[in-house]
Amino acid sequence: MLIEKIKTLASEIHEDVISKRRHLHANPELSFHEYETSKFVKEQLTALGISFTEIANTGVLGIIKGGLPSDKVIALRADMDALPIFETNDVVYKSKNEGVMHACGHDVHTSSLLGTAAILSKLKNEFGGTIKLMFQPAEEVLPGGASIMIKDGALENPKPQAVLGQHVMPLIETGKVGIRPGKYMASSDELYITIKGKGGHGAQPQENIDPVLIMAHTLTALQQIVSRNADPRIPSVLSFGKVIADGATNVIPNEVVIHGTFRTLDEEWRKSAHIKMKKMAESIAEGMGGSCEFKIVNGYPFLVNEEKLTARVKQNLVDYLGAENVIDLDIWMAAEDFAYYSQVSDACFYRLGTGNKERGITSSVHTPTFDIDENALKISTGLMAYSAIKELGF
Ligand SMILES: [Zn+2]
Ligand SMILES: [Zn+2]
């Protein structure tokens, strides 16, 4: 049976995948600078006899062709970049690149896809069609490596009928996975607002245009976008995490800077919210005698797991792990550049449990103490290999 064969192969390569993960973890590289990581991936693919092309600067696109007749194509994605974080874990594979850390598990995704590639290579005669292995750069910073992979043709010639991706999740115990059909993750836009007034002595309000007060009104008013304008059925989040009014007890500053984030799950509403927020902030500033520059940097779109594909993938997860180990996920308002693939192709992005409460492996991603239970690497490789083969119709 296919599942048993894959599980055996996943066990056989488990130690090797762990060592690859540890190598990547110890040698993290920042977004768009994944040179050594890319070299490592290419060496591993070469060792497996898998042909590849370079793409999106540091990206790698491997191709595995099955031995049976089929025109079907499926793409599997792993991201490769690390974060600007000082690792504080005391482990033998601690980051050797000080100030850079694989704190989002992209070392896990890359080593897992290499493991999946090894399994698929050994099972070539069990399936037909083409499997594209997409090792992409720069998930963590805009414009997102996924958008460049697409621009550089990763999803063309041949065009995959589906893209699959997995991401670590420390909230889920190792041995389990999570999945959600339909809209799953949010679009995320960065807001940069500068409110301009006229600074002066705090004792002479009649001579000043107070940007601090304009800021206070603006911050409060903008929340109406979520509470009064957003369709309650569309999740929306507006958060401001940075406000700089660099005056003093008796000094009114000339300007105030506000930075925030707007997240939602609907492209039309996203566009309309941008216009409404800008208009509201500009009008308030103008009405109070000042002015407002409202800059929006568009981030990733929302991520949607195509319903039918996701139902099939979920069944694969259940077949492979048992229904008790497959968790239904809620919408999550974080963003992920896999969303770009989901906007142009059928796509499914599921979560790999990497936590282990008993062993104290609970730190969330993007923290200096993030780590995984490496037993998850036995599941990640086989699960994706099995889903890929099933999706090809074998
Ligand atoms: Zn991340
Ligand atoms: Zn990530």
UniProtKB/TrEMBL annotation:
The Mn(2+) ion enhances activity. Its cofactor is Mn(2+). One of its GO terms (biological process) is diaminopimelate biosynthetic process. SUPFAM superfamilies: Bacterial exopeptidase dimerisation domain (SSF55031), Zn-dependent exopeptidases (SSF53187). The keyword Hydrolase applies. GO terms for molecular function: aminoacylase activity; metal ion binding; N-acetyldiaminopimelate deacetylase activity. This is Amidohydrolase. It comes from Pseudopedobacter saltans (strain ATCC 51119 / DSM 12145 / JCM 21818 / CCUG 39354 / LMG 10337 / NBRC 100064 / NCIMB 13643) (Pedobacter saltans).
